[in-house]
Write a structure and sequence with these properties.
mainly alpha, 7 helices, globular
Length: 117
């Protein structure tokens, strides 16, 4: 189904890997998943019992040194990874955000970085 966050994530990831390689994707994923700013964002989401905005994800990504001077493709991929990570580690259990809202977050990433899938 085309109206899901996972659909957007998978399409963008496949396009990113095709253009930049699996090794670059793996590096981005590692940087995002190990970042204190992402851990703090997930903790704050639990404490406030709400979903982070896409701006929150963007701010968390841009606080990671690796992404400060990265291009739009890489930053968009990082935001997708961070959002997916939040969905799989926080949202799956507490359901702060429904699938339609999650899909809108994915669309927001694409619009912010002027990307298509």
């Amino acid at each position: 189904m085309a109206d899901t966050f996972d659909y957007l994530y998978t399409r963008y990831k496949n396009k990113y890997v095709k253009n930049h390689g699996q090794a670059k994707f793996d590096t981005i994923q590692q940087k995002v998943l190990k970042a204190n700013s992402i851990k703090q964002l997930n903790t704050l989401s639990l404490q406030q019992r709400t979903d982070p905005s896409q701006s929150d994800f963007g701010a968390a990504i841009h606080s990671i040194t690796y992404f400060i001077f990265s291009g739009g493709d890489t930053c968009a991929m990082a935001e997708f990874i961070a959002t997916k990570h939040w969905d799989e580690t926080v949202n799956y259990k507490y359901e702060f955000c429904d699938e339609a809202s999650l899909y809108l977050k994915g669309q927001s990433i694409l619009r912010r970085w002027h990307k298509s899938i």
